[in-house]
Amino acid sequence: MSDRLFVATRKGLFTIERGKARRAGRWAVTRTHFLADNASIVLPDRRNGSVYVALGHGHFGVKLHRSANGGRSWEPCAAPTYPPKPEGVDDREPNSGRPIPWNTELVWALEPGHRSEPGTLWCGTLPGGLFRSRDRGASWQLIESLWNHPKRREWVGGGAELPGLHSVCVDPRDARRVAVAVSCGGAWLTRDGGASWEIRAQGMRAAYMPPERQYDPNVQDPHHMVQCPAAPDVLWVQHHNGVFRSTDGAASWREITTVKPAAFGFAVAVHPEDPDTAWFVPGVSDEQRIPAKGNVVVARTRNGGKSFQVLTKGLPQRHAYDLTYRHALDVDETGKRLAFGTTTGSLWVSENQGDSWETVSEHLPPVYCVRFA
Amino acid sequence: MPHVTFTQNIQRHVSCPETEAEGRTVREVLDRVFAANPRARDYVLDDQGAVRRHMVVFVDGRQIRDRTQLTDPVPADGEVCVMQALSGG
């Protein structure tokens, strides 16, 4: 069970730990890192205890730092960079018509590679490029097979003005099998370690498209995709207009319409051993990105989406307008502890699968990413 | 030889002491500076080698025009100032 959390926010990175002795069971901020800097994502690498954090400096660009000692000290490492844009390439975001910058605008996904590849990391970015490091972040290579795929040119921005790759799922059974999800460009799978890719969003529905395009895999906006480590053929997606589940390794997706109180949201977490148990933090709708009735709730299913329980104990149920972003809900490796953080700087932890929640803080900067060490 | 200075705000992230560097264009001057201080390069230039969107470069008080190729000329005794734009927040 993990006693430590890392929380990446608009104004720095925070270590949160479970107290011992007199403070047993109470979670609190124990260390701050990069205060006032914009930390878009954090990765505690459970394979070796390293921690990676991506900073997005408004003026100076995206930078990566790593720690070999759980965050006590940091060193800069390489940030993923795009290759020179070839002369004459007309690469534009279809909605705005603006040129796609071949430049890392944001690190939006950071995941460890397979256990058999201890130095490998995966990194998703705006404007949509996927990168891999083989040397713990000392260098990065753009996965050109996906970047140069003709369908990549059709990807559009979602909430951001540029498309972004925010989810990377490495199959625990096979290091070569990696699924990624893109806003907006559906879900993609490689079965050969990134040499080739196929789109895997069959069954997802895009309510924001005209009827004849609603099931087009490449227009789908999965907000976040997660994979059950013990049953990797099961994946869950919190999508722009619904929740979808796959039980065949992303070959097909089924819409789950039973989510309460709403099907809109960004975050999803799946139990590490039980593919039927998953958690969501819903908002009202894409046009109203606030909790329904001002009540912060977590929706949990234990039966693969047949039904949901709305969990409220310990969460504010009056005039609360917290929104939870896609990387800001996490479950620990036992499946017992959960944590989520919000745009208004609240952070809650549960030690009983969401039955009840403890408030860690209501005064953090806007939270982008919450992860158990 | 051109004289190069950097915004104070960059110093919190990477040390960029003022320096002198040979060169007839902004590109030549900055290439020399970054050859001696490679970590600073990515703080000023983007992946394509252009000036970052929210950075600005002045030569003798005039903002450079070519932010992509950095071809603006630099006099032998020119003053090159690498600053941050107010737009970056």
Question: What's this model, at a glance?
Answer:
With 373 residues, chain A is mainly β.
Describe the protein's architecture and organization.
- Chain A has one helix spanning 144-147, and strands spanning 4-9, 12-18, 27-33, 39-44, 51-57, 61-67, 75-77, 106-112, 121-126, 130-133, 141-142, 164-170, 178-183, 186-190, 198-199, 222-227, 235-239, 242-246, 254-256, 264-270, 278-283, 298-301, 309-311, 329-331, 338-341, 347-350, 358-361, 367-372.
- Chain A has 373 residues and is mostly beta strands.
- In chain A, β5 (51-57) and β6 form a beta hairpin.
- With 89 residues, chain B is an alpha+beta fold.
- Chain B has a single domain (3-88), classed as Ubiquitin-like (UB roll), CATH 3.10.20.30.
- Chain B is 20% helix and 21% strand.
- Chain B has a 5-stranded mixed sheet, with helices on one face.
- In chain B, α1 packs across α2 (38-44).
- The interface between A and B is medium-sized, with 16 and 18 residues.
List the helices and strands and how they pair.
The complex is a heterodimer of chains A (373) and B (89).
Chain A: E1 4-9, E2 12-18, E3 27-33, E4 39-44, E5 51-57, E6 61-67, E7 75-77, E8 106-112, E9 121-126, E10 130-133, E11 141-142, H1 144-147, E12 164-170, E13 178-183, E14 186-190, E15 198-199, E16 222-227, E17 235-239, E18 242-246, E19 254-256, E20 264-270, E21 278-283, E22 298-301, E23 309-311, E24 329-331, E25 338-341, E26 347-350, E27 358-361, E28 367-372
Antiparallel strand pairs in A: 1-2, 1-28, 2-3, 4-5, 5-6, 6-7, 8-9, 9-10, 10-11, 12-13, 13-14, 14-15, 16-17, 17-18, 18-19, 20-21, 21-22, 22-23, 24-25, 25-26, 26-27
Chain B: E1 3-6, E2 19-20, H1 26-36, H2 38-44, E3 55-59, E4 62-63, E5 79-84
Parallel strand pairs in B: 1-5
Antiparallel strand pairs in B: 1-2, 3-4, 3-5
